[in-house]
Amino acid sequence: MSGIDEIPLRDIARRGALFLDFDGTLVDIAPTPDGITVPAELPSLLTRLSDRTRGATALISGRTVETLDRFLAPARLPAAGGHGAELRRTAGGPLEHAASPEVPAAWIALAEALAACHPGALFERKPHGFTLHARSCPPALPRFAEALAELVSADRRFALLHAHMAVEIRPAGTDKGRALVSLMRQPPFAGRVPFFVGDDVTDEDAIAAAESLGGRGFRVADHFGDPDGVRAWLEAIAAENGS
């Protein structure tokens, strides 16, 4: 856990605001989005972590907030979904949707056709965009990236996001970093020091945002090794008994 041990867990619990990616950070990546295994203890861990940080624990993911709630029930946290296109500022608050353009139907048809031409590829529709997954057909990824790059180059309302073995169309101007900054502007996060943990290039904006606010950003592979290591670190924070 290089770079982690120097930060007292008590300080994180008392004064930190924790922002956590989901896939590849809290759970292992699976061949398909619905194929993940959520450890039985994870919902309870997140609830205890939220209690320990006085509510200043949030999820920031490319998944929808609804999907995160489903996988982590009964735990319910502040969350940003769709890389910031959705925002729930408090655990019991309403879900806010960023103003975003409608994805052209022709783009969806093209993406579905591309997935159909590559066995193992997966098209995933999202409320504010879509993703082409190539985890089961890696050679298709460059073709997917090229095709979607051509689309967004002609319509600057959208941006192309490169993820782990996937490419995604999302509204321009939304990213995990902006979501983190927005959450940090109000309680229970305001006045705390942000710590973000993520595993993918899609998390770089949030890492940069946390550090710009005087906090730290941690990459799973560099600091924890894998989601087991992340969960062990979070368990240690949740177990801190200091006031």
The helix-strand sequence is HEHEHEEEHEEHEEHEHEHH
Helix content: 25-40%
**What value does the Rg take, in angstroms?**
18 Å
Biggest sheet character: 7 strands, mixed
Main-sheet strand order equals 5-4-3-2-1-10-11
DSSP summary: helix tally:
9
Q: Domains counted in the coordinates: how many?
A: 2
CATH homologous superfamily heading of the largest domain? HAD superfamily/HAD-like
Estimate the strand proportion.
Answer: 15-25%
| Poorly predicted sequence stretches spanning 5 or more consecutive residues | none
CATH architecture annotation name of the largest domain: 3-Layer(aba) Sandwich
- From the 3D structure, determine the CATH topology of the largest domain: Rossmann fold
Structure in words:
The protein is of the alpha/beta class and 243 residues long. The chain has two domains: 9-98 and 174-238, HAD superfamily/HAD-like (Rossmann fold, 3-Layer(aba) Sandwich), CATH 3.40.50; 105-171, Alpha-Beta Plaits (2-Layer Sandwich), CATH 3.30.70. The chain has nine helices and eleven strands. The protein has helices at residues 9-15, 42-52, 65-72, 105-116, 141-153, 176-184, 204-212, 220-223, 227-238; strands at residues 16-20, 57-60, 79-81, 86-88, 96-97, 122-126, 129-133, 158-163, 166-171, 193-198, 216-219. Strands 5-4-3-2-1-10-11 form a seven-stranded mixed beta sheet, sandwiched between helices. Strands 6-7-9-8 form a four-stranded antiparallel beta sheet, covered by helices on one side. Helix 3 (65-72) links the parallel strand 2 (57-60) and strand 3 (79-81). It starts with 8 loop residues before the first helix and ends in a 5-residue tail after the last helix. The model has no long low-confidence stretch (mean pLDDT 93).
